[in-house]
Design a protein that fits this description.
It comes from Vitis vinifera. InterPro entries: Rhodanese-like_dom, Rhodanese-like_dom_sf, STR17/STR18/HARC1-like. The structure is a single chain. The protein is α/β, with parallel strands linked by helices. The protein has a single domain, classed as Oxidized Rhodanese, domain 1, CATH 3.40.250. Helix content is 31%, strand content 25%. The chain has five helices and nine strands; from the N terminus they run βαβαββββαβαβαβ. Strand 5 and strand 6 form a beta hairpin. The N terminus is likely disordered.
């Protein structure tokens, strides 16, 4: 009998309006874009935080080896999280990683920040 966990291959996505409702009910918004992109514009909710899923190195863009550790430094595996990026690609990868690390209440925001912005929901730009 194989005792290893199989990777999460299925997860629940939420569109921008569903994400907004979940955030209003207590979920937090995890933006996994690089800080430069986050600062250009992000979801305007009180419970937003930014931890990059990819980082730039001399070799180019690579997965952030500290991603899970950094997420755990600001929330628990029981917290509700909406994971978003620019278009939904990076956030899908991050969502799977979080689920594989036993986070319990994680949803990918389909379409990412672009879909939130196009839905006319609040956005914020950092100074």
């Amino acid at each position: 009998m194989d005792s290893e966990k199989s990777p999460a291959t299925e997860f629940i996505s939420a569109d921008a309006h569903e994400a907004k409702d979940l955030i209003a009910s207590g979920y937090r918004y995890l933006d996994v874009r690089m800080v430069e992109d986050f600062n250009k514009g992000h979801v305007d909710v009180e419970s937003v935080f930014n931890i990059a899923y990819f980082i730039m190195t001399p070799e180019g863009r690579v997965k952030n080896p500290q991603f899970l550790e950094q997420v755990l430094s600001v929330c628990s595996k029981e917290d509700g999280l909406i994971v978003g990026c620019g278009t939904g690609d990076r956030s899908r990868l991050a969502t799977v990683d979080l689920l594989n690390a036993d986070f319990k209440h994680v949803r990918n925001m389909g379409g990412g920040y672009r879909s939130w912005h196009e839905a006319g929901l609040g956005v914020k730009k950092e100074a």
